[in-house]
Amino acid sequence: MSDTGPPAIAVNKVSSWIGNNAEVDGALTYSLIAGGRSNMTFTVSDNSGVRFVLRRPPTGKLLPSAHDMAREYRLMHSLRSSEVPVPEMVGLCQDESVNGRDFYVMNYVDGIVVRDVEIASSMDEGVRRKMSESLIDTLCALHRVDIDHVGLGDLAKRNGYIERQIKRWSGQWESSRTRDIPLVDSVARELLIQMPESSPTTIAHGDYRLSNCMVDSSGSVIAVLDWELCTLGEPMADLAGLLGYWYDENSDDELVGDAASTELPGFMSQDELAARYVEEMGIPISSVDYYRAFAEWRLACIGEGVYARYLGGQQGIQSEEIDLEQMQKSVTNHVEKAAKMLQML
After folding, report:
1. DSSP-assigned letter for residue 322
2. Alpha-carbon span 261 to 38, nearest angstrom
3. Which one of 4, 161, 183, 257 is most buried, by most CB atoms within 10 A?
4. In percent, how much of the chain has pLDDT > 90?
5. H/E segment holding residue 309
6. Alpha carbon distances (Å) from 317 to 8, 145, 167, 223, 296
7. What gap in Å lies between CA 74 and CA 283, rounded to an integer?
8. Are residues 211 and 309 in the same domain?
9. How far apart are CA 301 and CA 153, in angstroms?
10. Domain that holds residue 64
11. Cβ distance 37 to 303 under 8 Å?
12. Do both 150 and 233 map to the same domain?
């Protein structure tokens, strides 16, 4: 086999490892999937057209507790027999002599990731409506999973979700920030002051949104992806995070990502999404605005880390154009939105 491929893949060693864990035909080729903002994702193909997906951390220095491949692998493997659709796992490699860092491989799922408005525009209104419904139904399925039954009861502490999250993301902010934004710290303190009574503990995906799910041609969710931020915690935070990415008719922000896609006719409104979730789960929605503020603040912390990694060249060569100025500006926008939701501005 030729040891040529993306710089982040030691092709000979990784191909040998995959060959020992799955049936492959001949040499393997690796292609970086564009659009990843954290871990690096590659399509792996053999001579017969069989495909896998490989996930590994970015290159360079990593933030503490971030990019945990074993955690992602464990979550999807544990959910394989649940009502939550996840890709089938091939294996986890924690031998750093193979590729320098942990990685895992899963079977390729043939579906559609609606990662931009062009893809969303190619679907008819009925499919967009179905996507909206399926996203909520799948989120409800995740929040109904018996965490002990699937072996995830020890994934994290079952209480203190907001306190744990604020401590974690404040630390990540300090480790990755490229400039001073005092409002980030102010919002963190206010989130602790205004913290509502928590809901019963569930699996919290942590980054549940349209572009982190794969759908089929009818709009049904067939795989939930990107489990890096998953923990045990507050289900309303997942719903609020989804709404935070969705089109908001009352916002003057530039429409990018999921917001641009979900402005199209056929997609449900934020109120309709929330109402469907509340009806299915049978819970009150009084605290959703607080968790939307939390989601915006956390996106600011995450966004700064992504921005810092792109500045440092840690995300590999992307085929898409990256607007670093917009990426930098979005951090300030997110924290200001959080402050307004908490009535600080």
Report:
1. -
2. 21
3. 161
4. 74
5. helix 288-311
6. 10, 38, 32, 26, 28
7. 29
8. yes
9. 27
10. 11-107
11. no
12. yes
